[in-house]
């Protein structure tokens, strides 16, 4: 509800997830952002309880800690005001989702998909007024308005039909202008027709739910930073 949302600000604000999905979205709705400088499980849980956080955008490794780490048992989870978490930046394994839902039955799990080169592409919740309900489990939700998306064969660029995995390409006014002082990499990422090639493999089903299944470019992720693997 407007003016009553307390959001955990843990994800780095120099990522699109942090600055748009957390900071700007919360402040636009006159909510409060509870900022953490770094992740430490006890500090994290204490912040959730004492600051009465009800929305926590996090990532799968944190969900894993909440499910598996014995430190969690030091806290009275009945004091949590948490209503929902949003996970992005990496796939959420189905078994981890089930384990989290069993341990935190009152907390809704939302999955979303986006990248800094474009901002958000999907949201878990559709628009009920347009016939969209809650997106399916393990999908990253429905396509946001005013975006075009297609799934292509990465070897020949051919567009693929529904329910067929291919590279996700998106086109909209949200596509970045380019990588700073790197025209060559920009040209490889954004084609002549304005399509941003994400490097992610996914598909869209008959109901409009989008699923991420793989990634073309292997990346090593460490504490929020990414680099190409050798």
TrEMBL record:
Keywords: Ligase, Membrane, Transmembrane, Transmembrane helix. The keyword Acetylation does not apply. Residues 7-180 form the AMP-dependent synthetase/ligase domain. Pfam families: AMP-binding (PF00501). It comes from Salix udensis. The keyword Transmembrane applies. The chain crosses the membrane at residues 6-27. It comes from the Eukaryota. One of its GO terms (molecular function) is long-chain fatty acid-CoA ligase activity. InterPro entries: AMP-dep_synth/lig_dom. This is AMP-dependent synthetase/ligase domain-containing protein. SUPFAM superfamilies: Acetyl-CoA synthetase-like. GO terms for biological process: fatty-acyl-CoA biosynthetic process.
């Amino acid at each position: 509800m407007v003016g009553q949302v307390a959001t955990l600000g843990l994800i780095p604000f120099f990522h699109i997830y942090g600055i748009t999905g957390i900071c700007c979205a919360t402040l636009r709705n006159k909510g409060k952002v509870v900022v953490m400088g770094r992740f430490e499980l006890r500090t994290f849980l204490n912040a959730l309880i004492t600051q009465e956080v009800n929305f926590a955008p996090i990532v799968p490794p944190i969900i894993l800690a909440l499910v598996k780490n014995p430190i969690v048992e030091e806290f009275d989870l009945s004091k949590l005001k948490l209503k929902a978490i949003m996970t992005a930046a990496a796939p959420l394994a189905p078994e981890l989702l089930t384990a989290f839902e069993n341990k935190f039955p009152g907390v809704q799990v939302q999955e979303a998909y986006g990248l800094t080169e474009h901002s958000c592409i999907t949201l878990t919740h559709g628009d009920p007024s347009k016939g969209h309900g809650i997106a399916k489990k393990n999908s990253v939700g429905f396509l946001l308005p005013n975006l075009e998306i297609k799934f292509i064969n990465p070897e020949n660029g051919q567009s693929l039909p529904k329910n067929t995995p291919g590279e996700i390409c998106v086109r909209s006014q949200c596509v970045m202008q380019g990588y700073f002082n790197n025209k060559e990499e920009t040209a490889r990422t954004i084609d002549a027709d304005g399509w941003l090639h994400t490097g992610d493999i996914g598909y869209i089903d008959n109901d409009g739910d989008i699923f991420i299944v793989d990634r073309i470019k292997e990346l090593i992720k460490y504490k929020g930073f990414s680099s190409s693997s050798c």
